[in-house]
Amino acid sequence: MGSVSLKIGDGTARFKSATVCSSAVHILMLFSVITTNLFALYAFTYSPKPHHQIHFLTHHHTHKNISLISEQVSLILREIDSSQKKLAQMEKQLLGYESIDLSTPNMPNELKLFLQRNQLPLGKDSRTGITEMVASVGHSCYKSMDLLSQYMNYKANGACPDDWSLSQKLILRGCEPLPRRRCIASKKLNRDCAGCFDITSGNEKQRFVTSRGKNDFLIDDVLGLGSGGIRIGFDIGGGSGTFAARMAEKNVTIMTATLNIDAPSNEFIAARGIFPLYLSLDHRFPFYDNVFDIIHVGNGLDIGGQSQKLEFLMFDIERILRAGGLFWLDNFLCSNDEKRKNLTRLIERFGYKKLKWVIGEKINGSGNSEVYLSAVLQKPVRV
């Protein structure tokens, strides 16, 4: 390489020709400059496309992973939904909540006609939202299809079979309400049971009029405890209807709920000019809220000794009794102290006022002493 002159001040400095070592350094410097320029050129001419490609790949893989996770979640949700449906189906089968298959072989035509759904002629009702009329039948009827088919197997427009025992068996199995039938009921009071209800002599004649012990309250005394007047009432497990008959003498209308246990109680009650209501204690009372001035119940309150059923029953009694109304518990058999305590705790939950509360002993037909609870309670006014 030639020499390079550099003028400094008034003199001149001269560099000699480059040596081999300096040439290597120059080559390295030149490479560095070229490399730097190339990087600079790359920086100035950079295109974001590679970044988008990387981003696309990353996004693709991420999306793929999310899709896999979503599929797994969807699969789990489907499994959960399927399990819930299976569990609900098992629960329906255990409880009896199941629709009745009208295509079942040997199903009576009368049952099919009663249960078939009928579309409303004008479509959906704007007030109720319903689109069809559905027959009312107890959910547990599904579990007694053999008896139900037998009950609905009759001649249409003819006389109804004398099968009150069959209908009561269905009711006691939870098949309530029963389906309607297109036949004429012509059953009369059986002559063989003419002595089943003795109201001219014995205990029934003096019941509620004369006291046989401290647990027996008189109607006049109880009516004197009522506030706002006693006009209508409900007797649960009324037997022969004596309570309703005595209250009718005081111008109080009583509806009596009873079944035909070993005797045609409902027919007998009706023959006395009293309104019978044929239903079990597992049935929700078909009355509106807060309508009765007085509710009377005896041992009918003991539904199999099951505390949970007793609680449901008591809440339904509380529902139909008006504020200030009277709940008359008449000679409830306390077979053990725990049973009495459970009933007492349940009553206290409602906050009823104890107008009368008597626990006493009576001698049963076997000569043994039994404990009975009689009470008159007043429902409070709640705000």
From TrEMBL:
Membrane topology of the entry: Single-pass membrane protein; Single-pass type II membrane protein
Coiled coil: 73-100
InterPro entries: Prob_Methyltransferase, Put_SAM_MeTrfase, SAM-dependent_MTases_sf
GO BP terms: methylation
Subcellular location, principal: membrane
Keywords: Coiled coil, Glycoprotein, Membrane, Methyltransferase, Signal-anchor, Transferase, Transmembrane, Transmembrane helix
GO cellular component: endomembrane system; membrane
One GO MF term: methyltransferase activity
Segments traversing the membrane: 24-44
PANTHER family in the record: OS06G0138600 PROTEIN (PTHR44067:SF3), S-ADENOSYL-L-METHIONINE-DEPENDENT METHYLTRANSFERASE SUPERFAMILY PROTEIN-RELATED (PTHR44067)
UniProt family annotation: Belongs to the methyltransferase superfamily.
Protein name: Putative S-adenosyl-L-methionine-dependent methyltransferase
The organism of origin for this protein: Cynara cardunculus var. scolymus (Globe artichoke)
